[in-house]
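During the second half of the funding period, the structural biology subgroup turned its attention to how the target accommodates small molecules. The most pressing case was 1,3-dihydroxyacetonephosphate, which had performed well in the primary screen but for which no bound structure existed. We therefore specified the complex as follows and requested a full 3D prediction, including the ligand pose.
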Amino acid sequence: MNNYTKDLESTIATLSAKGKGILAADESAGTITKRFEALHISSTEDTRRAYRELLATTPGISEYIAGIILYEETLNQKASNGQLFPELLKKLGILPGIKVDKGLVLIPNTAEEQTTQGLDGLNERLAEYKAKGACFAKWRAVYHISNNTPTALALRANAEGLATYAALCQANGIVPIVEPEILIDGDHTIERCSEVTESVLHSVFHALHKHKVKLEWTILKPSMVIHGNKSTTKTTAEQVGKATVTILRRTVPAAIPTINFLSGGQTPEDATANLNAMNVLPGNPWNLSYSYARALQDYCMKTWKGDAKNVAAAQKVFLERAKLNSLASVGKYKASMETETTTA
Ligand code: 13P
């Protein structure tokens, strides 16, 4: 019996509510600096705070966003009204989450495959994040597709990391988001992506089982089954939706309450259309929703431009994008709903 059963049950119920998703706003300082600099926005502790506050305080956003994944810097920051971010989010009806991995490292003696760091001291950090109000956490593992990768070694190392992390989260009353991301980079076909996704998810669920992770309190955050971004054969939303659901059905137990996809470099419109295509298929045992970073934020950040006078316009764009994804999570999105506001 877990002392935190009530907390875990309540968090997972909130995060898997129909028509809602998760916002990933947990870019590391390095990643958000790159995104800001591409738009000539200066990246300081304060501009990062202002931007994340803009997202969280968007009027009406809690209708579409049940939780926000924060980077550690934001978890410890105060919004302009003096409230700490976790407290602010809870008041707004949004659960605070936290990215707990410490990034990627090369696996020696492989063709540049990677695994994720951050297990040392994780138990203590999770207890601290829980005390600061975090209800859920995220750990990202990545896999590269080529003719001979991912290797069995990369599959095993990453599955072990994800499962060890997930078990520690649950022991600390935190719902784990398990994120195995198969990178979109490359010229692979959708068929090759299907094959790799099946192996990856199979290895991840095998490890979760070995570590006795309770699937009922776990969120899966996978990439979609899609052609590589340099592939000459493009696939339609219907093909992506069908291929993704086919692989999920083969590998993901129905005990997982919600699957919240990453957008992985797809355009915002594609990420929405592809999610919708999965949700028009009948008989899915899990909630299929979003946990996007770029696909939810891109147009909003471009509208904001780091200027306080653009906050209201940027929030409007963000709200619209979140609403379209919410519709996609219940199979009610249509491409004709895209307007100039949503694609600013
Ligand atoms: P993207 O939606 O931009 O892929 O980001 C999701 C995420 O959280 C990556 O870890």
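Two results from this model are relevant to the next phase. The first helix runs from residue 5 to 15. The longest strand covers residues 136-143.
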